[in-house]
Amino acid sequence: MVKESTRESGVSVHDRQRDRAARGVRSRSAVAALSSDRPSPPRRRRPALAALAVLLIVGGAALAGLLALRLDSREPVLVLTQDVPAGTRITTDMLGTTRVASEGLRLIPEKDASMVLKAYTMTSLSEGQLLDTSLLTTAEPFTSDQVQVGVTLKSGQFPPTLRSGDEVRLVRLGDGSSSVRPLAVGLILSEQTGADEGLSGGGSRNSTATVVVPADAADEVIDAAGNELLGMALIRRGVTVDSAQLTVLGGSNS
Known about the structure:
Blueprint lengths: L1 H36 L9 H27 L1 E6 L14 E6 L12 H4 L3 E2 L14 E2 L8 E7 L14 E6 L8 E12 L15 E7 L3 H9 L3 E7 L10 E2 L6
Antiparallel strand pairs: 1-2, 3-4, 5-8, 6-7, 6-9, 7-8, 7-10
Protein backbone atom coordinates (compact mmCIF):
# COMPACT_ATOMS: atom_id res chain seq x y z
CA MET A 1 0.00 0.00 0.00
CA VAL A 2 2.80 2.31 0.84
CA LYS A 3 4.57 1.66 -2.49
CA GLU A 4 1.42 2.17 -4.48
CA SER A 5 0.71 5.39 -2.66
CA THR A 6 4.26 6.60 -3.31
CA ARG A 7 4.09 5.74 -6.97
CA GLU A 8 0.79 7.39 -7.34
CA SER A 9 2.11 10.37 -5.45
CA GLY A 10 5.27 10.50 -7.60
CA VAL A 11 3.29 10.37 -10.79
CA SER A 12 1.01 13.04 -9.55
CA VAL A 13 3.91 15.35 -8.70
CA HIS A 14 5.48 14.83 -12.12
CA ASP A 15 2.22 15.37 -13.84
CA ARG A 16 1.60 18.53 -11.93
CA GLN A 17 5.03 19.94 -12.80
CA ARG A 18 4.49 19.17 -16.47
CA ASP A 19 1.07 20.76 -16.39
CA ARG A 20 2.47 23.91 -14.79
CA ALA A 21 5.27 24.14 -17.40
CA ALA A 22 2.75 23.74 -20.18
CA ARG A 23 0.58 26.40 -18.71
CA GLY A 24 3.59 28.75 -18.40
CA VAL A 25 4.52 28.30 -22.07
CA ARG A 26 0.96 28.91 -23.11
CA SER A 27 0.80 32.00 -20.89
CA ARG A 28 3.96 33.51 -22.43
CA SER A 29 2.76 32.69 -25.92
CA ALA A 30 -0.53 34.32 -25.17
CA VAL A 31 1.15 37.42 -23.82
CA ALA A 32 3.43 37.61 -26.87
CA ALA A 33 0.45 37.17 -29.18
CA LEU A 34 -1.46 39.87 -27.39
CA SER A 35 1.56 42.18 -27.55
CA SER A 36 1.99 41.65 -31.30
CA ASP A 37 -1.65 42.37 -31.89
CA ARG A 38 -1.46 45.74 -30.16
CA PRO A 39 -0.93 48.75 -32.49
CA SER A 40 2.42 50.55 -32.03
CA PRO A 41 2.11 53.96 -30.34
CA PRO A 42 2.10 56.85 -32.84
CA ARG A 43 5.35 58.82 -33.23
CA ARG A 44 5.42 62.22 -31.61
CA ARG A 45 5.82 64.90 -34.23
CA ARG A 46 8.07 67.94 -33.60
CA PRO A 47 6.64 70.88 -35.55
CA ALA A 48 9.14 73.34 -34.03
CA LEU A 49 12.14 71.45 -35.45
CA ALA A 50 10.47 71.15 -38.84
CA ALA A 51 9.79 74.89 -38.92
CA LEU A 52 13.38 75.63 -37.92
CA ALA A 53 14.70 73.42 -40.72
CA VAL A 54 12.52 75.26 -43.23
CA LEU A 55 13.74 78.63 -41.95
CA LEU A 56 17.38 77.55 -42.22
CA ILE A 57 16.88 76.40 -45.80
CA VAL A 58 15.11 79.60 -46.80
CA GLY A 59 17.65 81.77 -44.94
CA GLY A 60 20.58 79.99 -46.58
CA ALA A 61 19.10 80.49 -50.02
CA ALA A 62 18.48 84.19 -49.31
CA LEU A 63 22.04 84.67 -48.05
CA ALA A 64 23.48 82.96 -51.11
CA GLY A 65 21.39 85.20 -53.33
CA LEU A 66 22.52 88.32 -51.45
CA LEU A 67 26.18 87.34 -51.76
CA ALA A 68 25.74 86.72 -55.46
CA LEU A 69 24.19 90.17 -55.86
CA ARG A 70 27.02 91.77 -53.89
CA LEU A 71 29.61 90.05 -56.05
CA ASP A 72 27.81 91.18 -59.16
CA SER A 73 27.72 94.78 -57.85
CA ARG A 74 31.48 95.04 -57.45
CA GLU A 75 33.03 97.51 -59.87
CA PRO A 76 36.61 98.03 -61.05
CA VAL A 77 38.12 101.08 -59.31
CA LEU A 78 41.54 102.71 -59.42
CA VAL A 79 44.27 101.70 -56.98
CA LEU A 80 47.87 102.89 -56.64
CA THR A 81 50.64 100.53 -57.64
CA GLN A 82 53.36 102.53 -55.82
CA ASP A 83 53.90 105.14 -53.11
CA VAL A 84 53.14 108.65 -54.39
CA PRO A 85 54.39 111.81 -52.63
CA ALA A 86 52.19 114.81 -51.95
CA GLY A 87 51.85 117.26 -54.83
CA THR A 88 52.69 114.65 -57.48
CA ARG A 89 50.90 114.56 -60.81
CA ILE A 90 49.32 111.14 -61.42
CA THR A 91 50.74 109.12 -64.32
CA THR A 92 49.59 105.90 -65.97
CA ASP A 93 52.31 103.75 -64.41
CA MET A 94 51.03 104.65 -60.94
CA LEU A 95 47.57 103.19 -61.54
CA GLY A 96 46.07 99.72 -61.30
CA THR A 97 42.54 98.41 -60.77
CA THR A 98 40.70 96.22 -58.30
CA ARG A 99 37.03 95.24 -57.94
CA VAL A 100 35.15 96.46 -54.85
CA ALA A 101 31.60 97.33 -53.85
CA SER A 102 31.96 101.08 -54.18
CA GLU A 103 28.36 102.16 -53.68
CA GLY A 104 28.17 105.22 -51.42
CA LEU A 105 31.93 105.79 -51.57
CA ARG A 106 33.95 108.39 -53.45
CA LEU A 107 36.22 105.87 -55.12
CA ILE A 108 37.21 106.55 -58.71
CA PRO A 109 36.00 103.99 -61.28
CA GLU A 110 38.37 102.61 -63.87
CA LYS A 111 36.46 104.33 -66.68
CA ASP A 112 37.50 107.75 -65.27
CA ALA A 113 41.22 107.00 -65.38
CA SER A 114 41.82 109.63 -68.09
CA MET A 115 40.50 112.36 -65.76
CA VAL A 116 42.80 111.24 -62.94
CA LEU A 117 45.86 111.71 -65.16
CA LYS A 118 45.26 115.47 -64.95
CA ALA A 119 45.17 115.51 -61.15
CA TYR A 120 47.71 116.01 -58.36
CA THR A 121 47.86 114.29 -54.99
CA MET A 122 46.84 116.39 -52.00
CA THR A 123 48.87 114.29 -49.57
CA SER A 124 51.29 111.39 -49.66
CA LEU A 125 49.63 108.14 -50.76
CA SER A 126 50.70 104.52 -50.32
CA GLU A 127 50.94 101.54 -52.63
CA GLY A 128 47.65 99.60 -52.68
CA GLN A 129 45.58 102.60 -51.60
CA LEU A 130 42.24 103.06 -53.37
CA LEU A 131 41.99 106.42 -55.08
CA ASP A 132 39.39 108.71 -53.55
CA THR A 133 38.27 112.00 -55.08
CA SER A 134 39.09 113.78 -51.82
CA LEU A 135 42.77 112.84 -52.21
CA LEU A 136 43.25 114.62 -55.54
CA THR A 137 43.04 118.10 -56.97
CA THR A 138 43.07 119.32 -60.56
CA ALA A 139 44.53 122.69 -59.54
CA GLU A 140 48.26 123.30 -59.45
CA PRO A 141 49.30 122.25 -55.95
CA PHE A 142 51.81 125.04 -55.42
CA THR A 143 51.55 128.76 -55.96
CA SER A 144 54.09 130.86 -57.83
CA ASP A 145 55.76 131.94 -54.58
CA GLN A 146 56.46 128.33 -53.51
CA VAL A 147 59.31 126.21 -54.88
CA GLN A 148 60.59 122.69 -54.50
CA VAL A 149 64.19 122.23 -53.41
CA GLY A 150 66.30 119.12 -53.03
CA VAL A 151 68.42 118.87 -49.91
CA THR A 152 70.96 116.42 -48.52
CA LEU A 153 70.27 115.40 -44.95
CA LYS A 154 73.09 114.87 -42.50
CA SER A 155 72.73 112.32 -39.74
CA GLY A 156 71.57 113.82 -36.45
CA GLN A 157 70.22 117.03 -38.03
CA PHE A 158 66.67 115.86 -38.84
CA PRO A 159 63.93 113.92 -37.03
CA PRO A 160 63.85 110.13 -37.12
CA THR A 161 61.45 108.51 -39.60
CA LEU A 162 61.00 111.71 -41.58
CA ARG A 163 58.53 111.09 -44.42
CA SER A 164 56.32 112.62 -47.07
CA GLY A 165 53.60 114.85 -45.65
CA ASP A 166 55.66 116.08 -42.69
CA GLU A 167 55.58 119.82 -42.01
CA VAL A 168 59.01 120.88 -40.76
CA ARG A 169 60.85 123.91 -39.44
CA LEU A 170 64.13 124.48 -41.30
CA VAL A 171 67.04 126.26 -39.62
CA ARG A 172 70.67 127.02 -40.39
CA LEU A 173 72.78 125.53 -37.63
CA GLY A 174 75.47 127.53 -35.86
CA ASP A 175 79.06 126.91 -37.00
CA GLY A 176 80.97 128.40 -34.10
CA SER A 177 81.12 131.89 -35.57
CA SER A 178 77.35 132.34 -35.93
CA SER A 179 74.26 131.19 -34.03
CA VAL A 180 71.29 129.18 -35.28
CA ARG A 181 69.11 131.06 -37.77
CA PRO A 182 65.51 130.05 -38.56
CA LEU A 183 64.89 129.89 -42.29
CA ALA A 184 61.40 128.64 -43.15
CA VAL A 185 58.53 126.29 -42.53
CA GLY A 186 58.43 123.70 -45.32
CA LEU A 187 56.63 120.52 -46.36
CA ILE A 188 58.42 117.25 -47.11
CA LEU A 189 57.22 115.97 -50.48
CA SER A 190 59.44 112.92 -50.82
CA GLU A 191 62.52 111.32 -49.38
CA GLN A 192 65.16 108.96 -50.66
CA THR A 193 67.86 107.08 -48.84
CA GLY A 194 71.07 105.30 -49.69
CA ALA A 195 72.44 101.97 -48.49
CA ASP A 196 68.95 100.73 -47.51
CA GLU A 197 68.77 103.13 -44.59
CA GLY A 198 65.75 105.24 -43.77
CA LEU A 199 65.71 108.88 -42.78
CA SER A 200 66.24 107.90 -39.18
CA GLY A 201 69.56 109.47 -38.28
CA GLY A 202 71.19 106.08 -38.71
CA GLY A 203 74.42 107.37 -40.20
CA SER A 204 73.61 107.43 -43.92
CA ARG A 205 74.82 110.67 -45.52
CA ASN A 206 73.11 109.82 -48.80
CA SER A 207 69.66 110.63 -47.43
CA THR A 208 67.94 113.31 -49.46
CA ALA A 209 64.55 114.96 -49.48
CA THR A 210 62.45 117.17 -51.70
CA VAL A 211 60.96 120.03 -49.70
CA VAL A 212 58.55 122.74 -50.79
CA VAL A 213 59.41 126.09 -49.21
CA PRO A 214 58.55 129.74 -49.80
CA ALA A 215 60.51 131.04 -52.78
CA ASP A 216 62.15 133.76 -50.67
CA ALA A 217 63.73 131.14 -48.41
CA ALA A 218 64.89 128.74 -51.13
CA ASP A 219 68.44 130.10 -51.59
CA GLU A 220 69.33 129.98 -47.93
CA VAL A 221 67.84 126.51 -47.49
CA ILE A 222 69.93 125.21 -50.40
CA ASP A 223 73.06 126.93 -49.09
CA ALA A 224 72.62 125.54 -45.58
CA ALA A 225 72.05 122.01 -46.95
CA GLY A 226 75.11 122.27 -49.19
CA ASN A 227 77.29 123.20 -46.21
CA GLU A 228 75.74 120.42 -44.07
CA LEU A 229 74.29 123.04 -41.75
CA LEU A 230 70.60 122.45 -42.46
CA GLY A 231 68.58 121.28 -39.49
CA MET A 232 64.93 120.21 -39.38
CA ALA A 233 62.39 120.05 -36.60
CA LEU A 234 59.13 118.14 -37.06
CA ILE A 235 56.01 120.28 -36.59
CA ARG A 236 53.21 117.88 -37.59
CA ARG A 237 52.56 114.83 -39.75
CA GLY A 238 50.05 113.99 -42.48
CA VAL A 239 49.79 117.54 -43.80
CA THR A 240 48.09 118.07 -47.16
CA VAL A 241 49.49 120.43 -49.75
CA ASP A 242 46.70 122.96 -49.31
CA SER A 243 46.87 122.99 -45.50
CA ALA A 244 50.66 123.40 -45.09
CA GLN A 245 51.62 126.66 -43.37
CA LEU A 246 54.63 127.50 -45.55
CA THR A 247 56.30 130.55 -44.08
CA VAL A 248 59.52 132.54 -44.34
CA LEU A 249 61.10 132.82 -40.90
CA GLY A 250 63.24 135.62 -39.54
CA GLY A 251 66.66 134.49 -40.72
CA SER A 252 65.94 134.46 -44.45
CA ASN A 253 66.61 137.24 -46.84
CA SER A 254 63.46 138.83 -48.21
